[in-house]
Amino acid sequence: MKKLLIATHNPGKLAEFKNFLSDLPLKLISLTEIGITDDIEEDGKTYEENSKKKALFFAKKSGLPALADDGGIEIDALNGEPGVRSRRWLGHHATDEELISHMQKISRRLSKDNRKAKFRTVITVAFPNGTVRSQEGSVDGIIAKKPALNRAKGYPYRSFFFLPQLHKFYFESELTDAENKRYNHRYLAVAKLKPYLQRLLGLENT
């Protein structure tokens, strides 16, 4: 069975990718499973730059095709901030609780008529020979006035991101399979990337 490295140290992302790729005949490998503890600086100016940089780095280091992503939340009233700096909005790699606390302050400042926000992600699959393919996914929502009581490890912004059309906070566990396929930004990007994975990994006839 062909192997695909999921190049993230985020347990939430790892679980989502394993779920969204479960229909492909692939053995999904985590960085921990092959003993890779390295991390790289996400200093790109766009999600795509960071996504490609991570995927290529781990593909070449592991000798396996690697899948990586970069994304963030974009708040309309803040001109799209924090965007590519979502995890480092506070000037360092902030913890979930630090970001949730910061978002409480931000939420209080937003007017009731300007609370729109968007989650965007770019997912890249890279091969040790340098071949890369990237796809983007996004979902629109609003910033809730108060955070959900739930927490999703590795996803602090989801505690504030509300999908008004579903009357639900944006937690994968709270969305049905059909809702995830329609609204999950990472699922939408993975769905676009699957044809490339199938072709480049030779899975089309399996």
How does this structure look, described?
- The chain has 206 residues and is an alpha+beta fold.
- The chain has one domain: Alpha-Beta Complex (Maf protein), CATH 3.90.950.10.
- Helices cover 31% and strands 24% of the residues.
- Strand 3 and strand 4 form a beta hairpin.
- The longest helix is centred in the first third of the chain and has 16 residues, at 47-62.
- The model has no long low-confidence stretch (mean pLDDT 93).
Oligomer: single chain
Helix and strand string, N-terminal first?
EHEHEEHEEEEHH
User: Taking Cα atoms only, what radius of gyration do you get, to the nearest Å?
Assistant: 17 Å
Shape, per Cα inertia axes: globular
Mean pLDDT: 93
**Largest beta-sheet characterization:** 8 strands, mixed
| Assigned CATH class | Alpha Beta
Structural class comes to alpha+beta
Summed up, the helix count is 5
CATH topology: Maf protein
Termini separation = 10 Å
* Portion in strands: 15-25%
Please indicate the count of domains.
Answer: 1
CATH architecture: Alpha-Beta Complex
Helix residue percentage = 25-40%
Low-confidence stretches: none
Say how many strands there are. 8
